[in-house]
Amino acid sequence: MARKTGSHAEITGPRIRDAALRLFARHGYAAVSMRQIAAEVGVQAGALYAYTSDKQALLFDLMKGHMEHLLGSWKEVARSADPAQQLETFVRFHIRYHLDRPDEVFISYMELRNLEPENFVALESLRRRYEDALQDILTEGCAAGQFTISDTRVAVMGLIAMLTGVSTWFRESGRLSRSDVEQVYWDMTRRAVGLAG
Amino acid sequence: MARKTGSHAEITGPRIRDAALRLFARHGYAAVSMRQIAAEVGVQAGALYAYTSDKQALLFDLMKGHMEHLLGSWKEVARSADPAQQLETFVRFHIRYHLDRPDEVFISYMELRNLEPENFVALESLRRRYEDALQDILTEGCAAGQFTISDTRVAVMGLIAMLTGVSTWFRESGRLSRSDVEQVYWDMTRRAVGLAG
DNA sequence: GCATCCATTGAACGAGCGTTCAATTCAAGA
DNA sequence: TCTTGAATTGAACGCTCGTTCAATGGATGC
Q1: Which of the nucleotides in strand C have any atom less than 7 Å away from a protein CB atom?
Q2: Fewest C-beta atoms under 10 Å: which of A157, A193, B26, B153?
């Protein structure tokens, strides 16, 4: 447990998580040692265990925190009744969110196999809830006759993969701005679901 | 170097590569030891060094071999002159190839960060050649007035991410057959590039 | 039957791993 | 000023890591 009284180390916990996030994203969970994380924070390795039970918990907390924050953020943004508008909101939200948090995104789909079985199950269930948010939009749009989709489940997987991929190539200094990128992906998405436009 | 004369171990080299491929795909490069690979083959760890210079070379050879085989296979298949037909061929080829070789595909985009810098550069250049094959099709289709694409480079990245994603969820025993999946992805692709159909 | 050869073994190397814990340190409360 | 208590250290634990190499052993060619 972390200390409860005020002190010079009040923010050590978050600093450990930040360092672990950055290092896991850069080198991979298995390739990063507790000593490297500690060095990044400026403490000895043993001190980490006052803030986390073990290395696995550090990874799981990061991934779980990311997915819960993603789901929470989406709930705050989703409000339109029109499926087409909902879909555009989803696409722009997803891209913005993923470009803002490249490290969290990266570890959350690269390090799934390093989760212990029960942690993996928990993470998959959170991911499934996010996929279902998109699936509901697509299903509703099809029912309203606005979308033409041969298989909504495959469309969900295809669209999420397409949109998530943006973080593998986008560079802030590149040819396109964030809003350019949002627009291009929205154009492709709109057409992929057969939305007239 | 491997032995040159005939012997009971003629096929040890390939067996090492197979074991390494399977283990790297399942647990990740950093999490797999040379001793585990050796055990899978049925030899001691030291014996591996008669067939590979070190662990890194084992990874790089697998990834390079995969990309070269992918490029070679595409060259064999690509022959149509019509951009729309070329695109359909590409989509179906990509999905089929990726479903046939899940392990190779998996390590080739999961283990990039575990490559030493010069190996990484070599791999990226092979990947770029594959992306360019698709980009040429899209550019040609736009020039011919068959496709409507606001940014072909983004379209390439988006489409490849979408198509590659199939290997993360497809199960042989699932609801859809391979050719069902090909068809659904081709439908989405066709519409995403604005191809009338 | 003997000499050759080379794939393979098995021990060893130094290093680093995750984790534990008694000892230390030092600010805060009395 | 002294006591308290928790944050942190630093050494130590038993292991596993990638890699090397002298010794081995079993088939091959003479």
Answers
A1: 6-12, 16-22, 27-29
A2: B26
In this structure, the answer to whether residues B95 and B22 fall within a common structural domain is no
Asked if A155 lies within 8 A of B184 by C-beta distance, the reply is yes
**Average of per-residue pLDDT across A83-93:** 98
Give the residue with minimal CA–C1' separation from D17.
Answer: B33
Which of B99, B123, B157, B171 is the mutation pick for testing A, counting most A CBs within 10 A? B157
A197 lies in some domain: no
Domain total for chain B? Answer: 2
CB-nearest to A188 from B180, B184, B192 is B192
Could you tell me if A82 and A129 lie in one domain? yes
Which of B27, B113, B194 minimises the CB distance to A27? Answer: B113
Whether residues B62 and B100 share a domain: the answer is yes
In a domain, A112, yes or no: yes
Across the interface, do B27 and A168 touch by the CB < 8 Å criterion?
no
Same domain, B131 and B166: yes
CA atom of B115 to C1′ atom of C20, Å: 34
Residue pLDDT, tens place only, B113-169: 999 999 999 999 999 999 999 999 999 999 999 999 999 999 999 999 999 999 999
Q: Are residues A85 and A179 in the same domain?
A: yes
Which CATH number fits the domain that encloses residue B80?
1.10.357.10
- Residues B34 and B69 occupy one common structural domain: no
Which of the four pLDDT bands, split at 50, 70 and 90, describes residue A111?
Answer: very high
Picking from B161, B175, B193, the nearest residue to A165 by CB comes out as B161
pLDDT band (50, 70, 90) for residue B10: low
Contact B169 A160 (CB under 8 A): no
- Concatenating the DSSP letter of every residue in chain A gives ----S--TTTTHHHHHHHHHHHHHHHH-GGG--HHHHHHHHTS-GGGGGGT-S-HHHHHHHHHHHHHHHHHHHHHHH---SSHHHHHHHHHHHHHHHHHH-HHHHHHHHHSGGGS-HHHHHHHHHHHHHHHHHHHHHHHHHHHTTS---S-HHHHHHHHHHHHHTHHHH--TTSSS-HHHHHHHHHHHHHHHTT---
Boundaries of domain holding B1: 1-53
* Pairwise CB contact (< 8 Å): A185 & B26: no
